[in-house]
Amino acid sequence: MGIFAASSLFASAISFQVVQHDKSQDKIRLSSYQIEGDLMEYFFNAGYIVTNSPTVIANSDEDDKKEYTKSIKSAEEGECDYFVTLLTDYNVANSTGPEQSLLSNIHEISWRVIDIATGKEIASGVKKTGVVSPTQDNEDGISSFAFEIAAEISASITSKR
């Protein structure tokens, strides 16, 4: 009983980084920050210790690798169990509100989940926004999309435990 009680006190720690791919912007979009916040909220509410590296803009493979290297090192130093990198790809070419926080401005989000102890990728995925209904083309729609991704990430971590 004492061992179980002691082990249940230790929650897994997870670190996130959102990387914005958006050649139309030289600043981080509010929707990228919102995605980061929604993911952190989801995992905090699920009982994880949650941390993050700053949301960044990266528009090349070289930039992606540089940011990944910095962020995973930070997650290792913070003694996290998992590191999740999310690449948020925007496409505002046909947008009616390219500067707004609209779900339709996001083309897709891809992610990788790394087990810090082994350094191995334990899961990855891609979720495209597809056709967005007008009732979901707002901040609530972005949150719903982010929570769907969080649920997929959570399921992949849970299946590997």
In CATH, the homologous superfamily goes by the name TolB, N-terminal domain
**Overall CATH architecture:** 3-Layer(aba) Sandwich
User: What is the CATH top level name?
Assistant: Alpha Beta
Shape: globular
Determine the number of helices (DSSP H or I, runs of at least 4 residues): 4
Q: Tell me about the largest β-sheet.
A: 6 strands, mixed
Order of helices and strands: HEHEEHEEEH
CATH level 3 topology:
Rossmann fold
Mean pLDDT across the residues is: 92
Give a nutshell description of this structure.
By secondary structure, this protein is an alpha/beta fold. The chain has four helices and six strands.
Please describe what this structure looks like.
The structure is a single chain. Helices cover 39% and strands 27% of the residues. The chain is of the alpha/beta class and 161 residues long. It has a single domain (11-160), classed as Rossmann fold. β1, α2 (30-45) and β2 form a beta-alpha-beta unit. The protein is globular, with a radius of gyration of 16 Å.
What features would you highlight for this structure?
4 helices, six-stranded mixed β-sheet, 161 residues, 39% helix, Rossmann fold, single chain, 6 strands, alpha/beta, 27% strand
Per-chain topology:
Elements: H1 2-8, E1 13-21, H2 30-45, E2 49-52, E3 56-57, H3 61-77, E4 82-90, E5 106-115, E6 120-128, H4 139-160
Parallel strand pairs: 1-2, 1-3, 1-4
Antiparallel strand pairs: 4-5, 5-6
